[in-house]
Sequence to fold (552 residues):
Amino acid sequence: MHSGGAEAPARGRPDATAPGEGAHEHVPLLGVRALETGYGQVQVLWGVDLEVRSGEAVALIGANGAGKTTLLRAIAGQLPAWTGLVELEGQDLGPVPAHLRVGHGVVMVPEGRQLFAGLTVRENLLMGAFARSDKAEIDRDLERVETLFPVLSERRGQLAGHMSGGEQQMCAIGRALMSRPRVLLIDELSLGLAPVVVDRLIEAIAEIRRDGVTLLIVEQDVTNALTMAERGYVVESGQITLAGSREALLADPRVQESFIGI
Amino acid sequence: MSPQVLVNGLLLGGIYAAVGVGFSLTWGVLNIINIAHGAMVMLGAYITFLLFTYAGIDPFISIPASMFVLFLLGYVLQRFLINRVIPHGVFMTLVLTFGLSLFLIDLALLAFTSDYRSVTPSYAGSGLSFAGVIVPYQRLGACVVAILIVAGLNFYLGRSKLGRAIRATALNRQAAQLVGVDIAQIYAVTFGIGAALAGAAGSLLAVTITITPFMGQVFIGKAFVIATLGGLGTVQGALIGGLVLGMAESLGAALIGPSYQQAIGFGILVLVLVLRPEGIMGKQFFAEVK
Fold:
């Protein structure tokens, strides 16, 4: 096993900064600027600003219906931005349709897993590599994913729809890793899963980080969220109302009151 | 009952499978009930007729030509016409393909008139004969080629990257988009493949039945039965559905009377829908109502 996260990435531990204080010397890997979007006539996001720098793991915290999923979907291109920008290394992703954002390294694990239930586990993983054609590298990544989640190797011929919720979540993360994400968006990692499975997933997320993947995680459970991420944003009614480091957020009375229980 | 009846049923069933498989694919994967499938079968038959009559090309050799032409037609129709209507639901696409069907049939009437045509290669009328059973070469060839095409499609969908993407898109459009599949492109390709299969079926029918602009219409009802019997969107299902329908029609005609042919087909459909609504070979998770 690895010897713990403390000495991990050589790229250096980014210091937590509030949004808006802005890019110092580096352009962030993922940037969201004054983003507004919604469904049909219904506006959900009202001017969201957010930054994720390379190597970071950032959590989005907020109640149901706050707009977290909408924000991820807008980043992944499944919803067009009404106004504002989604940027990858400063490049506007607006004109890039959803199916091509995968090739740019913006990959999402959607809420509810959304596996191809009638395909086998192995076929699901291979679908993750749909946009790639580097055969040898795909094989290597497949091996890497099956080392991370051995159950996916044991069940490779089984239909994905026949697996348990936890195994499905592993398959969904594995499929996303097969797309070679630069920034991985995970929507509701732990929803509906047993605590022991959630612990296993959190360990896996730590390993994925060590492989150099940048993470933006939506997670209902704030303690879990801030175990995985060193920085977070609180989303309320389609706006970012609070941002800060893990320690700052955990110590904030508003976070304690709203999300950790009174 | 004579073994001839069984052989006839089998030969008919093979061609039915070819007619039904494209219809089933389009319905199962795209949720489009392509009423123009019969008209596309008719166009395939005319392509074979034209190539045979004016260029002397053997009807079996002309199959790739009609598949190619129909693929292009299907691809263009889906990409530029049907894709625009899909957001408005399955009923609107049904109405659109119904209109396309009328359009293609009238176009064929203008181009070819309503005269009866036939394709008669040198081996027409001869056949194998053993133990009192006659197997006409044309029908045998059509059945064998039909089954080869269905098996080829099954292999392609099961093993190729594009085939996997087609199945994945059938299961979950949103997830397919998330892994980088261009949904509009997959839809156009799948509709093109369905149309190409209709074209192949038309070429095969050209050597066994009379060619007219209306020849495809009877096969829409049959394709419906075949696809639903076997299980929507599954290739093996279309093969089983085709064979069951062919056999049932042949047996029914011999035992009850030829005028009950249609009633037998739809009677079986009703039975299957009541007893096993997912179809004989229906696969879990596919073609579920969402």
In short: Strands of chain A lie at 30-39, 42-52, 57-61, 83-88, 91-92, 106-109, 183-187, 214-218, 231-236, 239-245.
